[in-house]
């Protein structure tokens, strides 16, 4: 084992010990700890936990690589994900918090007074979260696989064990404080390399101010090589795919159950809004850095690796070739590696950049620990969501309403272990790259939940029949389009990653039409919807608004 492996392994093991220690210290003792952290998380720390929850392997490992590969077209991911948080913060999160439930399926079941709607929502939540977690486990496999120079599938197995331990111990309370620690680790690990790269390339330590000049230089090299210019709009995809992907990520973000549940962990509607504001700030640190990461990495590869003799390539190339994420071939037989002869996998860019830029073993190890933090933080939130959908919405609310707290906690922990193992088996041979798998989860979340949540909060005429029909046709149409697009059957050139733009309108139409042709919901359910528009200090009832402090109307 070389010095680099020892340093990286030491940092990763230290962070693993930290996560498990936090989970043990915050071990869930009752169901409110396990599902919503007893609703006692301050907004600042909840915003940071949301940042950790959100900064998945797709964001940490895949985002910069996607922008590097797609240039301008890759910005759809950044704009879509950021825009989705604005939708969630302003249109849904405070209202869902005021309703005061544990999960998204519980909100849907109680809002529409319908157990069929609750069951469909719980099953859809499990499908969406399961899809998402496959991408996270694949990410942990990339990190550990590179660390030991082994196939990524073995790294995935190790990640599965770690995630199952700390998520089942601490529940939402433990996962929240673990995500806070993971956010701090991952954002430090993400920013330090680009600060050093900016110093190397431009002499300025502020990459956000300098990478524009690097983009200009990359464009000049592209023109010289006769390639599509970097950051030229729609060079790698067409406008319809760009808009479809941006829309899918935006509505998917605002409808992802594991993201929404984080807003249930605070005390008030105001705290929910502040949580969203803090989360946007913390997430922005990484998203504003990803384009700089991509530009510096591409520039160094084009100027310092391409053009080198095949027998004088840097040592790091062999390690990444072993993982299957880097392919090089002297296609013209001239003994020199040309830029067009390098195939860089999206999922290796961030991990490999410290090695490419020769930043030293500590920085390389820090990035490995940060990538693991990103994969584990989101996976923890997803496992809690899967667990609560099964143990709370299906087992407790539908099968055994008299279950004790102890039985419900045990059911939740068993659900976490089983879902981790099954997802880990699927992740051994992932069906796509990390960002692609994650985009499917967003499409399914948007296609299934966004219209039902939006109309459920803002349209009192929406009823149970509309919600059930909307979720079923939204989920089915989105799934069908993903499979069709993967077999090259598309509409207007929209790929599988933009499937939400198909499912969401169909879901909206189904909700509205079916609700209008069936009986309206009971009056108390309609009053509940109007009540959501008032602050928690007020209650709407029987056509009048009352102050909750007893001072009257």
UniProtKB/TrEMBL annotation:
Per the record, its GO cellular-component terms are: plasma membrane
InterPro entries from the entry?
EF_Hand_1_Ca_BS, Na/Glc_symporter_sf, Na/solute_symporter, Na/solute_symporter_CS, Na/solute_symporter_VC_2705, Sodium:Solute_Symporter
Q: Which PROSITE patterns match?
A: EF_HAND_1 (PS00018), NA_SOLUT_SYMP_2 (PS00457), NA_SOLUT_SYMP_3 (PS50283)
Membrane topology summary: Multi-pass membrane protein
Q: Which GO terms describe its molecular function?
A: transmembrane transporter activity
- A Pfam family found in this protein is SSF
Q: Which Gene3D superfamilies match?
A: Sodium/glucose cotransporter
* Lineage: superkingdom: Bacteria
The record's Gene Ontology biological-process terms are:
carboxylic acid transport
The answer to whether UniProt assigns keyword Cell membrane to this entry is yes
Q: Which UniProt keywords apply?
A: Cell membrane, Membrane, Transmembrane, Transmembrane helix, Transport
**Which PANTHER family does the entry link to?**
NA(+):SOLUTE SYMPORTER (SSF FAMILY), SODIUM/PROLINE SYMPORTER-RELATED
> Would you tell me the protein name for this molecule?
Cation/acetate symporter
